[in-house]
Each structure stands twice: as C-alpha cells, then as structure tokens.
Design goal:
Layout (H helix, E strand, L loop, with lengths): L12 E5 L3 H14 L6 E6 L36 H10 L31 H19 L3 E6 L3 E7 L2 E6 L4 E4 L1 E4 L12 E2 L17 E3 L5 E6 L12 H20 L7
Parallel strand pairs: 1-2, 1-7, 2-3, 4-8, 7-10
Antiparallel strand pairs: 4-5, 5-6, 9-10
Length: 266
Amino acid sequence: MGHAAAKDGGEPAIAFVGGGAGAALAAIALLRATTWLRLAYRILLIDEHGRFARGRPYSGAGGECLLEIPVKHMSALPDRPCHLMEWVRAEQASPRRAGGAGAREAGGTALASPACGPETLLPRRLYGDYLADTLAATAAWASPYASLHTRADRAVAVGADGRGAAVRLASGERVPVAAAVVATGDPAVTAPPPVEGAAGAAPGAGLAACSCGALTTPAGEAAHLFAVGAVRRGEADATVPRIREQAEALAQRITDTVLRTPPGRR
C-alpha cells in the first residue's frame, strides 16, 4: 500500500473515511469492478488508528475471540465463496503460522493445521489478516491502473465540493477527492464525522442512504458522497455478508457515476 494523500489533478481519488472491514470490502469490490475497464484512479483509506482493513473488530484487540458466522459466508469475494477457506488453509500450511491458525469448529474443538471447513468459526484477528491480505492482493492485481493509499489521520468533516467531495483532517489538511465514502461503522460506537451537504444526517442515527449507498443533498440531488456498512441508517447490526452486498452495489454506483464520467462532467 502507498501512503500518499490524494492531491488535485491526475487520476481521480476515492476516499474512504474509516479504513476498517467495511472500507476494505468496498475497496476490494471497487477494484474488481473497474480493473477490466482500465480506469485510472486512486483509493485512499483514512483511519485514525491506522487499523487498515481491520478496524476495531478485527484488529486483534479481542485476542482469539471467534467470529459468529462460519467461513462459508465470510469470503470477501462473492463469486468465490471458498476464497476465505482456501486462504486459511494456505496460511495454516505456511511456516509463518507455526502451530496453526487457531481456528475452531462451531462446537469449540481446536483445529489442527490445516483443517478448515465451511462451518469453521475463525478468530476475529485472523479474519482481519485475511481482509488485509485480500485487499493488498487485489490492489496489486489492479495495478497499474488503480492504486491503493493509506493515511493514519482523523477525518473531522466530509462534504460535497463542486462536482466532487472533500475531506478535512484533524491535521488541518483538506483533501479534495472525486468521491468520499463514509465507513466508520456503528454510529453508536464511533460517531461519523459531520457530513456537510448530505440530507438527514442526524447525530447517532446513522446516515440516510439509498440502496446503492449514495447520500443526497437537502435539495434531493445526488452528490458524490456515499456510505457503506453499519454507519448507514438502519444498518447498525449489518453483518459481513450484508456489508459485502452493500459493497458490490456501491462499487457499481461509483464506477458508473464517478469513474466512468468524463472529468468535466463529474
């Protein structure tokens, strides 16, 4: 991953405010949706704590706490439901995972490497590793057209900016982008930054978004502002399969309305 912030000029940038699992799933979906089109753009993940692709739930803070959903439903790639299982088996066979991955069957019996099946419940920490690896691998596959960058900083405001959007950071920098996606998770746990120019943004209630994740202005117009994951209103309990579904629709919307739109019409 790169570490450069998006700047004016050059390829359009898509900023994800919050760099956890929701942002990772959406970024993976976007990279996969656009690479065959050879669209040149940058993805910028902004996360205050630098827990890119993991966020708090999958960062390792919970030790070996297990997922509540089995492997068969947790692949980051909807067209490859066995992708996570294949990744775990490869990791369990890897020297860097000496002693096995520590996964457990639904009944609680410890697994010996390389046993991982569709019903396995993985440690949350290990799932965070999977998301990070899958995001990095997808970005490498998308190169040289799309590129992935990270920024450890706190977004203090997000808003529409002409035909695009802008993110203001705690460091004082203003980052102009083609579109901004708020992915800060459950608003009851982590409040999203104020979203200027979005309709119905009420504190603690989540962001009102259409089914494809687009936010609208108070006048009802479409803006290049989006949301994915539990930060969406009514989605506080969204699971990974649900967020993956959101991510696929969001990726298509950004591809069609932002990245495939000529610069002068964005």
